[in-house]
Specification:
The chain is mainly α and 247 residues long. It folds into 3 domains: 76 residues, no CATH class; 92 residues, Leucine-rich Repeat Variant (Alpha Horseshoe), CATH 1.25.10; 75 residues, no CATH class. The protein is built from 12 helices and no strands. Helix 3 runs parallel beside helix 4, helix 4 packs parallel to helix 6 and helix 8 packs parallel to helix 9.
């Protein structure tokens, strides 16, 4: 269970178990130099300490090393975590957000660090995600698009990120899917075509028409049996056979 870099403390100095206030735990197999140490710089060794000694977590939330605070926050009492929402390290703030009740996440909705705002997007109640639709970071908007109530998704129809538009196309109410017929990104249109195939039967991109051939009803799929691409024709015929068998 050793491995990793040479053991040094969080400031790069030598570790001395004899000077540690927790040295009695070493004899109990709850810590040890090079594999589980509260004072080590290596995060995996710090993590092991709190897994083996979760009762130490609360008292280590104010440790000067951010990795120690972040790992302590994983195990600490949730009632002690509110103060960490203002921690100088984004990893610590993010860990606190992921464990605190969703209402607490709203305090960091404008956090300057993307990692914290991503954590916020994961924790806010779906009906409270609308402000994140305008976030400058695509990863934040993507989480919001996956979790928001479908009724909020129209605000993301013109998102500049095609990945986000594809998420929206997969979740938005079907009445909105015609808006994607003119989307410049084929993979976005393909996501919409899987839900309303008939709208995309004449799409110029083979990937979109293939989705239509896979998901369309009999009337729609028959329009593709004469498609110029062999794979589309084969898929359309296979889909028709499945529809006949299931009728």
């Amino acid at each position: 269970m050793s491995g990793g870099p040479a053991p040094v403390d969080w400031q790069g100095g030598a570790l001395d178990c004899s000077a540690c206030r927790y040295q009695t735990r070493r004899a109990l197999g709850q810590c040890g130099l090079g594999w589980s140490c509260l004072h080590d710089r290596y995060a995996r060794r710090i993590e092991r300490v709190f897994l083996l000694n979760p009762e130490l977590s609360d008292e280590c939330l104010g440790h000067p090393y951010f990795e120690t605070r972040a790992n302590a926050a994983r195990q600490a009492s949730v009632f002690r975590l509110t103060a960490l929402l203002d921690d100088p390290d984004p990893g610590v703030r993010g860990m606190a957000i992921l464990r605190l009740p969703p209402a607490q996440a709203e305090r960091r909705i404008k956090d300057p660090d993307r990692r914290v705002r991503i954590a916020v997007a994961h924790r806010l109640a779906p009906e409270n995600l609308l402000p994140l639709a305008a976030d400058a970071e695509g990863a934040v908007r993507a989480v919001g698009a996956r979790r928001a109530e479908p009724g909020m998704l129209p605000v993301l129809l013109a998102d500049p990120d095609p990945e986000i538009r594809a998420i929206v196309a997969g979740r938005i109410g079907t009445a909105w899917l015609d808006r994607f017929r003119a989307d410049p990104e084929p993979l976005v249109r393909r996501a919409a075509a899987r839900r309303r195939p008939a709208l995309f039967v004449a799409d110029a991109d083979i990937r979109v028409r293939h989705a239509v051939a896979e998901e369309g009803d009999a009337e729609t799929v028959r329009q593709l049996v004469g498609d110029g691409e062999e794979i589309i024709r084969e898929t359309a015929l296979r889909r028709l056979a499945q529809l006949v068998e299931g009728a």
